[in-house]
């Protein structure tokens, strides 16, 4: 008889990412970093988790939603074709929606999916997110450590409730290197590892423009 996988069997499917370093022209990257560094303190507020709550056990960071980054969205549009092919996801009819996220000393974002299978199945707001992108910036020399983006491989089959347990998944860490961008499917389990930034200065932070190519960007959902 052919062996059949038991209930505890796990398949690790490596998660596809597209990562591009030196993404923007150097002057453009510096301009964006300077805009992020000079963001008005009153425009920054504690980052929220889905459901629009502040939950500092899950996520500790600051966000700026009105941040302007046309230079970045133009460049993203130009690489859309190869990204679609590499990830195997069609972005037709999508528009970017994004925010600036700032991680300073002790900040992190616990493992999460930008779209859960529950949300996708129920057609909830976050299900409009088709591809996640994250563009990183920091001053040189870098003044923080940690803060890697940890991408978990998918454990298949998923649990009966559709969730993933990070402890059961292998992973790969990507450094938040200045002027690099990464694209992945919003259903991929990922995490921001804790940042250590001894000076605690805003300008020394890990800056990320994090967003999604969305089917209906007017209804972003958090
Ligand atoms: O900053 C990053 O590396 C990822 C942030 C993230 O996962 C999110 O904001 O949903
Ligand atoms: Fe995320």
TrEMBL record:
Keywords: Dioxygenase, Iron, Metal-binding, Oxidoreductase, Vitamin C. Pfam families: 2OG-FeII_Oxy_3 (PF13640). PROSITE patterns: FE2OG_OXY. Residues 93-215 form the Fe2OG dioxygenase domain. It comes from the Bacteria. SMART domains: P4Hc. The keyword Glycosyltransferase does not apply. This is Fe2OG dioxygenase domain-containing protein. It comes from Streptomyces scopuliridis RB72.
């Amino acid at each position: 008889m052919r062996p059949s996988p038991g209930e505890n069997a796990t398949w690790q499917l490596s998660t596809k990412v597209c990562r591009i370093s030196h993404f923007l022209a150097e002057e453009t990257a510096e301009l964006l970093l300077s805009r992020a560094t000079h963001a008005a303190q009153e425009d920054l507020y504690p980052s929220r988790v889905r459901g629009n709550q502040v939950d500092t056990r899950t996520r500790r960071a600051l966000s700026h939603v009105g941040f302007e980054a046309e230079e970045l969205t133009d460049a993203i549009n130009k690489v859309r074709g190869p990204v679609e092919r590499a990830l195997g996801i069609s972005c037709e009819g999508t528009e970017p929606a994004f925010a600036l996220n700032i991680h300073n000393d002790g900040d992190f974002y616990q493992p999460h999916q930008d779209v859960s299978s529950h949300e996708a199945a129920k057609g909830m707001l976050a299900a409009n997110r088709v591809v996640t992108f994250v563009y990183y910036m920091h001053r040189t020399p870098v003044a923080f450590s940690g803060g890697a983006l940890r991408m978990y491989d998918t454990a298949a089959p998923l649990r009966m409730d559709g969730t993933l347990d990070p402890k059961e998944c292998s992973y790969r860490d990507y450094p938040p290197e200045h002027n690099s961008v990464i694209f992945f499917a919003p259903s991929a389990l990922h995490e921001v590892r804790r940042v250590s930034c001894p000076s605690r200065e805003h300008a020394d932070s890990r800056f990320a423009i994090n967003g999604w190519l969305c089917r209906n960007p007017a209804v972003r959902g958090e």
